[in-house]
Specification:
Helix content is about 35%, strand content about 20%. The protein has about 300 residues and is an alpha+beta fold. It folds into 3 domains: about 5-115, no CATH class; about 135-190; about 200-290, Cathepsin B, Chain A. The radius of gyration is 25 Å and the shape is elongated.
Length: about 300
């Protein structure tokens, strides 16, 4: 992965100025050293990306996770291959977060990637005012997300609507409900463990806690009956009319299933709804329990 050593002297000096480093050193080696220290500082890159123009943060995260990419795949349009990159990549380029390599691809700068993944704040760097603070801050956390590796957590943090905030290297919290966070992650294409499904069989139901999928009416009925009996959420592909209208994805807390009608709490519509079996294209029995209990 390319580093700041690929930048020209003028590019190094401009990046330092934009990063708030004051007047850069006169020598190239001095500018490189100061820029490396700035990019690797705790929280510098993450805070910088929070102020980035629309699309810039997503582009940097993608490059940091997946490696170099052509401009076309990042922006959906071409680039003639010389000079400053088109917006919003130019914002990243001028701050030494990305660089164009000899292969013509856009690369995330190595020092910027290291700074982006840096989450540990040394005690020696804690400001005196913070050390003297006596008050506690309590913030809402409706859902806790645990990732198997930091890269996947970074991908989840960019999911629109999830409102996730990292609190550790592989842990994030959100004030939204677990159902809302799951829906936002699925919409962003982030894989969830519970989405690894197996086919439901009315004659041989799966193990308790397993995620099962049903697509034919007989299997859907069996799955919904188990969902009610076991007090587990279901995710439905539900059509506006009998398989002929637009389909929506619904996470439902099932309360009652009778006469091919499922009654429960719809997290998409945030209210009680009734679902007909003949409008369900697919049903997935989730490991998660009910969040909204049936009203008395």
């Amino acid at each position: 992965m390319p580093g700041v050593d690929l930048l020209t002297h003028d590019e190094l000096r401009e990046a330092l100025r934009l990063l708030g480093g004051g007047e850069p050193p006169s020598t190239r080696a001095g500018v490189q050293r100061e820029l490396r220290a700035t990019l690797s500082g705790y929280g510098t890159v993450r805070l910088l990306l929070d102020t980035a123009p629309p699309g810039a943060r997503d582009a940097f995260v993608r490059l940091a996770q997946d490696g170099a990419a052509p401009v076309e795949s990042l922006l959906g349009r071409g680039w003639w291959g010389h000079g400053i990159l088109p917006p919003p990549l130019d914002w990243l380029q001028r701050r030494a977060l990305v660089v164009v390599g000899e292969d013509g691809l856009v690369h995330a700068v190595d020092e910027a990637v290291q700074g982006f993944h840096e989450l540990a704040l040394p005690l020696s760097d804690v400001p005196d005012a913070a050390a003297e603070a006596e008050q506690l801050t309590v913030e809402p956390a409706g859902a806790i997300l645990v990732a198997p590796r930091p890269g996947l957590l970074d991908r989840a943090l960019t999911a629109p609507g999830a409102e996730l905030r990292a609190v550790a290297e592989t842990v994030a919290v959100s004030p939204k409900s677990p159902s809302a966070v799951r829906a936002a992650l699925r919409a962003a294409g982030v894989p969830l463990l519970e989405d690894a499904v197996m086919a439901a069989d009315a004659g041989e139901p799966g193990l308790p806690g397993a995620t099962e999928e049903a697509v034919v009416p007989k299997a859907v009925r069996a799955l919904l009956e188990r969902a009610v009996a076991e007090g587990r959420q279901v995710r439905l592909q539900y059509f506006a009319s009998s398989r002929g209208g637009a389909a929506t994805e619904r996470v439902v807390d099932p309360w009652e299933f009778r006469d091919d009608l499922l009654r429960g709490w719809c997290h998409l519509r945030e209210g009680e709804r009734t679902f007909a079996v003949d409008r369900i294209g697919k049903a997935v029995l989730l490991p998660s329990g009910l969040e909204k209990l049936r009203s008395p």
